[in-house]
């Protein structure tokens, strides 16, 4: 079924969204702005490990990606990434990742050669100097350090030639028998809103404790987050910065209850041929749902921020809300045969804010034209999966904004190649026409 747990995680600051804008391949969803697509959740595998493994399958170990840069007209959207160096000592590993954007270099050399009267050594030297243009390159260093058998530290820093400054991140993860504790910090942190626009928060620090899902379906989570200075739009936009990203300290807690019921399920029997993905081995029809609530308190409200004082006040000091999702899943086929053995549809209705929905309904009867929050209207998520051949599956993730008339809010096309040896691992090549970007990832046990 579609991942219902995203409904709770979308309220916090650490929901990872894949992006080729950064070398670590991760941005954050703006909390409280609705529930992202299932296909828009980033891989749990660190990007350095993904590139290292995929480098064995691509010529010269170079992996392509596609994303607009800060100056995409000059630098282009096409980029090449590769692991330049990698060190593994026991459980400790470190790697150096490089990125190259070829459009500007090719255009500059072509113009240089065309302007020259003849092919001379000097012309060759003038063309070669463009290779030293630092805006063509980006470089990043990542290290994963095991501290104990249940805790690890992940450090990364990266520098893009066309941008000022560098991005540094640190994450400390400690696993308890029934909980995960995570401390994360970034300078700056990249967020993406429901419109696909990127925002850069100069400083972001979060401490979270999340319970594992119990057999009863109950889950809870609490944490505290601090952000400093005003967020900056990565690309030129007239939109106002999301309220959740304005400076302040926020304490938040959430709980959820999840339940599912099979309407029909064909249990797996003994068979010599195993499925390409163990999660897709049983034809079934299932209805599932999740219901939960959140509460938050802003400890500080960004005093002294005159340009954003009105928005900060609108954010309020305290808030509580309910959320819920209901999903219907239908799967035909066991994903074992070479052709025509997997057709799957997931339809999920998300209500990220019960209070926002109630205000919308009230305004509808009052004919009010008051401003609506991004999370106030329900969203319909549709996931279509169809086997092409063997382990290759074509997938479409779409999200519709249900207001007076349904509107397409997000769309992702992807090709998934299931890695049978990993039971439920796959290589995903995705493209988002709304964001005009795409990349290749490795995802393991993506549920």
Structure report:
By secondary structure, the chain is mainly beta. It has one domain (4-303, 316-444). It has helices spanning 6-9, 47-54, 72-75, 102-115, 121-128, 309-315, 354-366, and strands at 16-18, 26-29, 63-66, 78-89, 92-100, 137-148, 151-160, 167-175, 179-187, 189-192, 198-201, 203-211, 218-228, 232-233, 248-265, 284-300, 318-332, 343-351, 379-389, 392-401, 407-419, 425-432, 437-444. It has an 18-stranded antiparallel beta sheet. Strands 1-2-10-11-14 form a five-stranded mixed beta sheet, with no helix packed on it. A hairpin with a 2-residue loop joins strand 4 and strand 5 (92-100). Helix 4 runs antiparallel to helix 5 (121-128). The model is unreliable at 302-310 (pLDDT under 50).
In short:
With 447 residues, this protein is mainly β. It contains seven helices and 23 strands. It has an 18-stranded antiparallel beta sheet.
Task: Set out the fold topology.
Elements: H1 6-9, E1 16-18, E2 26-29, H2 47-54, E3 63-66, H3 72-75, E4 78-89, E5 92-100, H4 102-115, H5 121-128, E6 137-148, E7 151-160, E8 167-175, E9 179-187, E10 189-192, E11 198-201, E12 203-211, E13 218-228, E14 232-233, E15 248-265, E16 284-300, H6 309-315, E17 318-332, E18 343-351, H7 354-366, E19 379-389, E20 392-401, E21 407-419, E22 425-432, E23 437-444
Parallel strand pairs: 2-10
Antiparallel strand pairs: 1-2, 3-4, 4-5, 5-6, 6-7, 7-8, 8-9, 9-12, 10-11, 11-14, 12-13, 13-15, 15-16, 16-17, 17-18, 18-19, 19-20, 20-21, 21-22, 22-23
Helix pairs in contact: 4-5
Organism: Handroanthus impetiginosus
GO molecular function, one term: phosphatidic acid binding
Protein name: Protein TRIGALACTOSYLDIACYLGLYCEROL 4, chloroplastic
């Amino acid at each position: 079924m579609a991942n219902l747990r995203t409904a709770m995680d979308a309220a916090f600051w650490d929901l990872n969204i894949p992006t080729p804008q950064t070398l670590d391949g991760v941005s954050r969803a703006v909390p409280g702005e609705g529930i992202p697509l299932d296909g828009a959740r980033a891989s749990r595998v660190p990007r350095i490990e993904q590139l290292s493994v995929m480098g064995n399958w691509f010529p010269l170990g170079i992996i392509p990606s596609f994303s607009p840069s800060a100056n995409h007209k000059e630098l282009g959207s096409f980029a090449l990434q590769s692991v330049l160096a990698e060190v593994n000592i026991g459980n400790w590993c470190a790697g150096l990742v490089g990125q190259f954007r070829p459009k500007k270099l090719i255009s500059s050399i072509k113009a240089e050669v065309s302007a020259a009267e003849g092919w001379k050594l000097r012309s060759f030297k003038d063309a070669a100097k463009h290779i030293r243009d630092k805006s063509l390159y980006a470089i990043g260093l990542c290290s994963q350090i095991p501290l104990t058998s249940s805790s690890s530290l992940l450090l990364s820093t990266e520098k893009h030639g066309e941008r000022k400054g560098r991005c540094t991140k640190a994450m400390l993860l400690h696993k308890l028998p029934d909980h995960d504790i995570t401390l994360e910090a970034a300078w700056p942190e990249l967020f993406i809103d429901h419109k696909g626009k990127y925002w850069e928060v100069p400083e972001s620090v979060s401490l979270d404790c999340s319970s594992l899902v119990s057999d009863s379906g109950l889950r809870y989570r609490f944490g505290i987050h601090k952000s400093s200075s005003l967020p900056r739009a990565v690309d030129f936009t007239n939109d106002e910065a999301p309220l959740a990203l304005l400076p302040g300290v926020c304490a938040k807690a959430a709980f959820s209850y999840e339940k599912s019921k099979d309407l029909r399920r064909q249990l797996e029997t003994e068979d010599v041929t195993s499925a390409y993905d163990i999660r897709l081995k049983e034809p079934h029809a299932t209805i599932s749902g999740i219901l939960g609530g959140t509460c938050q308190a802003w400890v500080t409200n960004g005093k002294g921020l005159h340009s954003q004082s009105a928005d900060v006040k609108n954010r309020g000091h305290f808030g509580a809300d309910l959320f819920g999702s209901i999903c219907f899943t239908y799967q035909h086929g066991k994903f074992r045969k070479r052709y025509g053995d997997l057709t799957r549809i997931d339809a999920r209705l998300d209500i990220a804010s019960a209070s926002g929905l109630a205000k919308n309904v009230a305004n509808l009867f009052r004919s009010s034209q008051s401003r609506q929050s991004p999370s106030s209207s329900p969203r319909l998520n549709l996931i279509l999966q169809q086997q092409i051949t063997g382990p290759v599956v074509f997938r479409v993730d779409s999200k519709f904004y249900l207001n007076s008339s349904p509107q397409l809010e997000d769309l992702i096309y992807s090709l998934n190649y299931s890695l049978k040896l990993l039971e439920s691992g796959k290589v995903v090549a995705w493209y988002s026409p709304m964001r005009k970007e795409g990349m290749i990832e490795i995802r393991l046990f993506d549920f």
